[in-house]
Amino acid sequence: MENVDPSRDFVKDVKRIVIKVGTAVVTRKDGRLAVGKLGALCEQIKELNSLGYEVILVSSGAVGLGRQRLKYRKLVNSSFADLEKPQLELDGKACAAVGQSSLMAIYDSLFSQLDVTSAQLLVTDNDFRDRDFRKQLTETVKSLLALKVIPVFNENDAVSTRKAPYEDSSGIFWDNDSLSALLALELKADLLVLLSDVEGLYSGPPSDPQSKLIHTYIKEKHQNEITFGDKSRVGRGGMTAKVKASVHAAEAGIPVIITSGYAAENIIKVLQGQRIGTLFHKDAHKWAPVKEVDAREMAVAARDCSRRLQALPSEERKQIMLNIADALEANEKEIRTENEADVAAAQEAGYEKSLVARLVLKPGKITSLANNMRTIANMDDPIGRVLKRTELADGLILEKTSSPIGVLLIVFESRPDALVQIASLAIRSGNGLLLKGGKEAKRSNAILHKVITEAIPDTVGGKLIGLVTTRAEIPELLKLDDVIDLVIPRGSNQLVSQIKSSTKIPVLGHADGICHVYIDKSANLEMARRIVLDAKIDYPAGCNAMETLLVHKDLADKNWLNDIIVDLRTEGVTLYGGPKASSLLNIPQARSFHHEYSSLACTIEIVDDVYAAIDHINLYGSAHTDSIVAEDHEVADAFLHQVDSAAVFHNASTRFSDGARFGLGAEVGISTSRIHARGPVGVDGLLTTRWILKGSGQIVDGDKAVSYTHRDLTAT
């Protein structure tokens, strides 16, 4: 689920909820009732009710609704002479008396259409001074909730003796925000949700572009930093009242979330643990340091550290990686302990075996990762290599050199080893790095990040590599096209496509891994058998696993095709066919040729020849990796040159499409892009170029001051 925040895990235990909806939410700007928003609210409450939650509603809006009706009644009953006189303000208590019955009638009507029963409870501040009243109130609400009735509370303004808003340390309320907090305490609620006309609590007025949404309120940090804007356009409260009520309830042990009453299904999202609105919790100060680092600060810090890294001599950069490798081995016990905790949690949560398998750091894995890092460290220095050297004119030399891209944001799957591989490539290429791993590996990622960054010297800074801990931070990072230079998403088709559509930052990656193996009529059939089985069986979830097997028509009538079907089925592979293969082989027809199974399943189709195979791959493939098995070299050459994929193989398994197997040391991912890196992306794929011009005082002067030679000096 997107945007799930680990700090909101407490919602799993929520049973009883108090929801407060303010006047600004239930009315339009002209003061009329916002029936559409009320209807959407009632639908959410209906869903919560059916899911077994106990919902208590505190609703404002009666005074505003009553004022609107009394204004209309006064207008109808006034003469022209009356209207010319100065108009006196309507009595608020009269407005409350008229509006309360009207408001409740609307709730009753809306809930009735959803087959839900509601009940009205009007209270005043003095009622709560009576212990017997409070006891009876608790019993009444308990009975209503047991019958799945929705209690709807409001202050009885029509008869309240209070003349002005006030606060009282005993908890007596002074508006519906403080009433909802008081009710949450009295009725032992598990959560209080305050619906507002803005997304939550901001660091300043929401209309100020510099204001930032505060996701978790930490009293020690925020109480002296927030600048409140104007109070609500209607009602008595405003954000100041909401914050005071929230702090009071949270300190008493009731978590509170302030969020927008305008956004669809916000209450449902709150109960799913999504990071929306502002959370108030008594333990909030334990979850985050007093000094939080926001997305921009993290990205800017990574950029600054990367520039310091690039400025170091090659040997010092190499030594940093060797120190990290040593630190990984030295901390292996602690790393494995945290990894085992992740694996146990994933098993308890019932995740698929394939995901759990990717989580595990097997014995020897840390040593292997450390050795891979040493291998990358010992590669030739990739930064500042002269790729081309040209004499533009006498004494004027131009060099095209390799250069780091800048700051990389990499979103990767729940594979802790990927964090180490990616970090090693980023450091070797001189790039700053922001990492977001799968939530299932959060403890493993955290300890690996800690070990790696603590091994980076202060001359560079551990903030070279930032760890993004929640998916909710990703949308903010994707807006930072002025700081982050490249996004590399590793994961599902949905994840990659979503990121591509959500950012202006260049995205390097692939959305699908639909890999083909074509068996030509000239193939060595025993070789073909081994390649097909390896391409599908070796690691079915890999993006380089075979998803479609194409077979030359001349092999369709031979035993080889039947034999390979038996072999695949013996290994547990589910087979689907194209139009030709499904009828010939009596197997179910595939829903689409453009499909990535990522499991023990594949599609088989019969084709006329190599050119039909090429056309099929270019039409239905994903430009990832495709292979031909053939002894006819003319046929193989046609395939190798005409299949438009990042990697094209002859007589080899598609599983070789991998950075480590290509000798790159590791990979940050596999790119199907046609710009910049393509295929497995290692160190070279994380570099761009710079032009360095060295002269001796030359000027252009309309090209009259120089005599161009444009002599290639690259080889000299």
From TrEMBL:
Q: Pathway, per Swiss-Prot/TrEMBL? A: Amino-acid biosynthesis; L-proline biosynthesis; L-glutamate 5-semialdehyde from L-glutamate: step 1/2; Amino-acid biosynthesis; L-proline biosynthesis; L-glutamate 5-semialdehyde from L-glutamate: step 2/2
Spans traversing the lipid bilayer = none
Aldehyde dehydrogenase domain: from which residue to which, for each copy? 290-558
* Keywords carried by this UniProt record: Amino-acid biosynthesis, ATP-binding, Kinase, Multifunctional enzyme, NADP, Nucleotide-binding, Oxidoreductase, Proline biosynthesis, Transferase
Family membership = In the N-terminal section; belongs to the glutamate 5-kinase family. In the C-terminal section; belongs to the gamma-glutamyl phosphate reductase family.
Q: Where is the Aspartate/glutamate/uridylate kinase domain?
A: 15-260
**EC code(s) of this entry:** 2.7.2.11, 1.2.1.41
Indicate what this protein is called per its UniProt record.
Delta-1-pyrroline-5-carboxylate synthase
GO terms for biological process? L-proline biosynthetic process
What does it catalyze? L-glutamate + ATP = L-glutamyl 5-phosphate + ADP; L-glutamate 5-semialdehyde + phosphate + NADP(+) = L-glutamyl 5-phosphate + NADPH + H(+)
| This protein's GO CC annotations | cytoplasm
Q: What does the protein in this record do?
A: P5CS plays a key role in proline biosynthesis, leading to osmoregulation in plants.
Q: Name one Pfam family in it.
A: AA_kinase
**Which PANTHER family does the record match to this protein?**
DELTA-1-PYRROLINE-5-CARBOXYLATE SYNTHASE (PTHR11063:SF8), GLUTAMATE SEMIALDEHYDE DEHYDROGENASE (PTHR11063)
Name the CDD domains on file: ALDH_F18-19_ProA-GPR
Instruction: List GO molecular-function terms, semicolon-separated.
Output: ATP binding; glutamate 5-kinase activity; glutamate-5-semialdehyde dehydrogenase activity
